[in-house]
Amino acid sequence: MAPMAPAASTLRTVESAIGAVLSGSISEITQRSIYRRLGALAQIAVEDLTEVDRRRVLSDLESSVRLFAKNGSTELMAACTRVLAGGSQVVPAPSGVPIGPKRLPIDAEKDIAAARLDAWSEAVRLGLSKFKSVKVATAVSELARNIVFYAGQGMIELRPRLDDGEPRLEIIARDSGPGIDAVKLQTIFAGTYRSDRGMGKGLAAVKKLTDEFAIETAPGRGTVVTCAFQGER
Amino acid sequence: MSHSPALAPQGEQAVPIIQIRNCLLVSIQIELHDRLALDLQAALMDRVRESGAKGVVLDVSGVEIIDSYITRILNDIGRSVRFMGAECYLVGVRPAVAMTLVEMGVELDALHTALNLDLALARLEPAG
Questions:
Q1: In the predicted model, what is the mean pLDDT of residues A195-216?
Q2: Residue B65 and residue A131: Cβ atoms within 8 Å?
Q3: Which of A88, B26, B53, B120 could disulfide-link B114, Cβ–Cβ 3.0 to 4.6 Å?
Q4: At B13, which helix (H) or strand (E)?
């Protein structure tokens, strides 16, 4: 417990935290129906929200906010995401400063789902749109799966940034597996490659989903995929 | 009973198959990893044969992310159901998931789709 923190922020319920953000943009009546929809989650202290709860609240909120806020729904959602992130330590850093990278070791199939979830919440926290966040999670899922299937183990790094207030999420997937030769790489991105286990479409899918994409690989030298998602305006 | 399906021990049927009249319903709520997907496919084939079901409905409304691997699994299930003479419907695809799949260039060629379970059943069993 932080002794200097104001009492108001330490025991704030989800309802009061969101209420503070939405008041002025969304009517009282609509707000009440939003809280009713959230049910018991609305009365939980922000600090006690689990990651899954937090995501459920945000995804519920998203549809209501988009529907009822006349304008600035993206900003409202970003503000809600911030207040639910639970405390001042996760408020986005000043422009251009990395918010702090996250390294996710990928060693087993269970790590795929975990990486996906981490990437998703990172995207939401950064203020990327709902669709963009789903794309982020899908791309990370593909990258993590490739690592588990073809290399056995590796690492995915998430690098959230705010450049001039624009959110940007860089993703680096690294493994020291068998690597990919130039001919195979060509068939992969031409969409004609088929592996035994997957559809062989993972990498091509990641390339299509991301705003920036680069791959460095050679037989016996492992694979590094560097890609980025940019917040849209 | 408070068991977590995701942590189900080896051999346990973690994805339940429910029969509604002439159709089999599978609600996918958990991570479909390799073994689980194969188990589900095998169990589903057995149930199709035993029950003579006309249709199989795969409900993915609880699935927030579908990547190319999951798509392949769904297509494989759809294809094997079709080989057995039944039709396979995918229902409950979330909007963001649908948009992502389109952007990825992924196709669900072995599956019919419907917005929800109700509509899928209506198509599988026209006029009750």
A1: 85
A2: no
A3: B120
A4: none
